[in-house]
């Protein structure tokens, strides 16, 4: 046999390159340390099928380093190489040699050629608080959670806002009105305090509170005073009579309101009470995050004082609306420089005169003031554990300024409390803000809420559109997750806020009925008709097993429905809860907290088809497989479990931790055989299953 024929014979006898065995990612199992400091050595690892490749190279900044096998286990070889972290972003990929074949591996997996966009990235000194990663959060819209102190409730007619007066709602289960900004149900900080046992029993680790500072609305995204907790949700120690008379909308006559929100004893008592509340939260081993609304304030704000609430109060300088000599004049952008007193020509966010846009570029004093607010609440005696930043990318008039300001904000907050988190609301690609010197992470719309909602319900997150072509479309789900997870490098991804619902979008349980609607033209009852709790449980399983910080919106666990705001802001249904849903959430939270790989482990898609999905979460020691069957018919599926690291050499088993189905869920202990790395399971209709192997 000649040389050429001998070579061809050997090549034909050689095992085929097992591309599905190739794996690496940015988790602590494949990058050690996962968040290195400049000058620190970093070990990068890569997995292949055992004895299946000739060589693996780590390619970084056009430098190619041969990797060596550091261990072999369960039919895999694990390669590693070490490099030193510099001061700049480090981007890398892998080159695999197999005979005459050369292929590459990047964030997407195996590829025929490297691509700069899909390289793995490593940022020096990107230090995200460890407590955030995988933490179970609970978002509370304070007015709608629980009324613990009726003496601080907003009174009907106490003041006027947007052409009508405030309303005290006396029926807790009433659905919010279409224009419900002036409706108050009485929920307060004391109410949350009284329900801490419930939250702790549920498994909550972090409280995220919608805005709590002085404000005339129930949502409080129109801040009146950043320095004080609103006495209406805090404590009123000095009160008086004096609500508005019928037909009177002049807030300079709203004496009761003025007393409550400007009296320093009320304000200090509310702050003191809040400090005690945070101390109790911390005593229980929990954290707390506040909502920072720094893009705009409210027309009631003491810096503006359009409602003339502070104009005649001792100790308060004149607002910018009242006087051209106001110390706050530069905080806002006035078009008419001759219109004082009572100048209404200021710029409003999206044109709303109730939401004056803060003019950062025009006022260094404003910048310093907001930086001080950022420091104040993460410092003693309050010691909150971080900020969620509302519409964070809209802050200034340019991206250049936004980046400059958030760098300053991060420095100020982290100097005051190094373990405080900075988590931003952002729609779209956030990677420009995630370099380790601005935001820690984001609310995860692109790489969680939206793809998951389309896949499981076919609904847009506001319930404004139904897309049958996206319902059950696992290919689009996988593509979306892969694309958007790349924008959240691992340090941010593991702390990203993974929500099914929140105060800006319809309730997830409502989306399961495929009803397009809003309460402005549909009845609130329509939000509860035809819902599918089994699909909600599928979503909960994915929420609790996907990389990130699973975040419950208050009442989701109790079966609350609702179209987009204000209908999504219904009260927590105390005494009318869906106890099965609460029980399921508790079980899934327990699973999430028990298994470390759910907080920082690898994720790999194992199987998918129309309405079906399976993925693995795994470390070097143990493996978990999650299966979803989002359809009415049952099915049998075959899964290549070995891709998660389970040996193909020996038969093993996986234990079912929980099984959800059309009528409920089960924790019955059932084991499934894994033969030669293959797992066969039967999935019920609208089913979700979590399997574990160690």
Description:
The chain is of the alpha+beta class and 694 residues long. 22% of the residues lie in helices and 23% in strands. It has 14 helices and 33 strands. Strands 25, 26, 27, 28, 29, 30, 31, 32 and 33 form a 9-stranded antiparallel sheet that branches. An 8-stranded parallel sheet has the order 22-21-20-19-16-11-24-23. Strands 3, 4, 7, 8, 9 and 10 form a 6-stranded antiparallel sheet that branches. The radius of gyration is 28 Å and the shape is globular. Residues 3-11 have low confidence and may be disordered.
Structure classification: alpha+beta
If helices are DSSP runs of H or I spanning 4 or more residues, what is the number of helices?
14
Straight-line N-to-C gap: 49 Å
Quick one: biggest sheet?
Answer: 9 strands, antiparallel
- The helix content, as a percent range, equals 10-25%
- Portion in strands: 15-25%
Taking all residues together, what is the mean pLDDT?
95
Radius of gyration: 28 Å
Features:
single chain, 694 residues, alpha+beta, 9-stranded antiparallel sheet, disordered N terminus
Write the layout of secondary structure elements.
Layout: H1 3-13, E1 31-32, E2 41-49, E3 55-60, E4 63-66, E5 68-73, E6 76-84, E7 90-98, E8 101-106, E9 109-111, E10 120-122, E11 137-140, E12 160-161, E13 164-165, E14 167-168, E15 183-184, H2 189-194, H3 196-202, E16 206-209, E17 213-214, E18 225-229, H4 255-262, H5 264-283, E19 287-292, H6 364-378, E20 386-389, H7 399-416, E21 421-424, E22 441-442, H8 445-457, H9 474-487, H10 490-493, E23 497-499, H11 508-511, H12 533-545, E24 549-553, H13 579-594, H14 597-600, E25 602-609, E26 612-618, E27 623-629, E28 635-640, E29 652-661, E30 664-666, E31 671-675, E32 678-683, E33 687-693
Parallel strand pairs: 11-16, 11-24, 14-15, 16-19, 19-20, 20-21, 21-22, 23-24
Antiparallel strand pairs: 1-2, 2-6, 3-4, 3-7, 5-6, 7-8, 7-10, 8-9, 12-13, 17-18, 25-26, 26-27, 27-33, 28-32, 29-30, 29-31, 29-33, 31-32
Helix pairs in contact: 6-7, 8-9, 8-12, 12-13
